């Protein structure tokens, strides 16, 4: 039986998305068709729907945290969502996430909130048999966290502050703990602190209200787009400390004072955006080592028809990860 | 004969400075008294006078680019203007310019625009016999430039853009050229480009209008506080490139767009403020290697009575370095 139509979620404009019927995509050169098994929702998907995103081209099927089966062999893969040129300096230096010609599934091309997807073989990272699809779908956001941590120059025992105890902050904590750094999460919402307690206790990572933070950290990362969080974490950095801008800031954020703080206190700020294949492979390895801890981040498995409501929940508040399951 | 009064320049408030008669300072513990021979004016001195500065405590004798003679031995020294605690983490890590208890001559304590100064022996860096006092007084700003360059992770042949071809930009070019980096200066003022041609030709460093800049640099530094210059240099950085915030930005600068650029293009921004003793010693070594090139940066030698007018000229425009000569 040849399937030629599929169900997909389509964003057509700000606050407009619906489940639609689309043609099944046809593989291009060097591509294979995959049947998607899991696609986990990212706050960036919610951002795309509600305020747009720099790299978003509409109309678009979103979704970039994807696990899928090869249509013919049935093998399972986590899908690196990028398409890089392969021959620019960034690509040749192993930083293909910085390729100026980067095109991203779910941003420039249709992504994983659909039954089928076409991708190049080189983008497919095998998922170990024992790893569940829900947990394996965290390889992309965890890989992005690893990319952020790779931008910091830290040694074992250094103190890292992660602002925001949402799913991204928790994934950062998971990755940082593996590096031997002393991680502290900060979170303004007491309800979120309660929600994440099982995860934080399992990881033995403290999660504190900002006013309860100890004094000086060697490094910090923002895992929330709130400008106040960025100011707060820099105020807790030692002179000469490092911080990573992992979450983009709302348009119109005034960053002048922060830049001068960086100047006078000789701080080091690094951006982080996306991840490389190698980082996503390392993320899969880590998920395979600690599937139970990672599994605590999955709040719900939902059907595609529930995705619009889930995106609204994610945008407005405190949801843990929602995974759309197709099989 | 005991001298107990001295002439000094005193800043007492915004746009208020005058040459006054002050008591000669009395050495504190572990300090010696020095007779100042040269103090070169910095744009920060002009900033202090005209808009204030974060670390300035009024009333204040400014001046932190100082060469002086030991009152008893007559030996000449460049004076590292800092006073660090010596036992905090920054101090123990050899980054004493980041000491949270830092007090700076000419900022927190009276500086070099006076006939005498007291300083600790550990702050005194011997000036080689053959080096003129005017050129030796550039050790502090050149050391600050070396500190900025030390924040960048570059290899020989990498392309560095320095925005602003004033004295600071030219000192940065001098230091960067020694590292084997390919330096380009950018400058908005055609008059400034003409003024600095002798220096740039001697150094074989191109100085270009922004619109004539080639495409992609590995790293960049702002040697001007103009926010537009910072935007301009980041637009010429390769993805994943580095930039150093060497000049602080005017209060009220909107840096939000720049922060998001840093996020999306995974740039690395480092602040730089002051220098360590070791960096200032390296600066003295470099000045001793190329006194003629460095000498091209000294526009005028003046008397203390001409300093107020010189500070106004520096603040308003295009002056090269002015050195106040006391002997």
State the gist of this model.
2 copies of one chain form a homodimer. Chain A has 12 helices and 17 strands. By secondary structure, chain A is of the alpha/beta class.
> Radius of gyration of chain A from the CA trace?
19 Å
Structural class of chain A, please? Answer: alpha/beta
CATH architecture of the largest domain in chain A: Alpha-Beta Complex
The tally of helices of chain A reads 12
Largest interface: A-B, 41 and 40 residues
Shape of chain A: globular
Count of the domains of chain A: 2
Low-confidence stretches of chain A: none
* CATH topology group of the largest domain in chain A: Quinone Oxidoreductase, Chain A, domain 1
Main β-sheet of chain A: number of strands, strand sense, barrel status? 7 strands, mixed
What is the mean pLDDT of chain A? Answer: 95
> What is the chains' assembly state?
homodimer
Classified in CATH, the superfamily of the largest domain in chain A is Medium-chain alcohol dehydrogenases, catalytic domain
Proportion of beta-strand residues of chain A: 25-35%
Fraction of helical residues of chain A: 25-40%
What is the string of SSEs of chain A from the N terminus onward? EEEHEEEHEEEHHEHEHHEEHEHEHHEHE
Any idea of the CATH class of the largest domain in chain A?
Alpha Beta
Q: Quick one: how many beta strands of chain A?
A: 17
Q: What would you say this structure looks like, in words?
A:
- The structure is a homodimer of 327-residue chains.
- Chain A has 327 residues and is of the alpha/beta class.
- The first copy, chain A, has helices spanning 43-50, 89-92, 133-136, 139-150, 167-178, 190-195, 197-203, 227-235, 256-264, 277-289, 291-295, 307-316, and strands at residues 5-13, 16-23, 31-40, 66-70, 76-79, 82-83, 103-104, 116-120, 124-126, 159-163, 182-186, 207-208, 217-222, 237-245, 268-271, 298-302, 321-325.
- In chain A, strands 3, 4, 5, 8, 9, 16 and 17 form a seven-stranded mixed sheet that branches.
- In chain A, β14 (237-245), α9 and β15 form a beta-alpha-beta unit.
- In chain A, α1 crosses α12 (307-316) and α4 (139-150) crosses α10.
- The longest helix of chain A is centred in the last third of the chain and has 13 residues, at 277-289.
- Chain A is globular, with a radius of gyration of 19 Å.
- The model of chain A has no long low-confidence stretch (mean pLDDT 95).
- Chain A binds chain B through residues 54, 89-90, 93, 95, 97-100, 151, 238-240, 245-249, 251-273, and chain B through 54, 89-90, 93, 95, 97-100, 151, 238-240, 245-249, 251-256, 258-273.
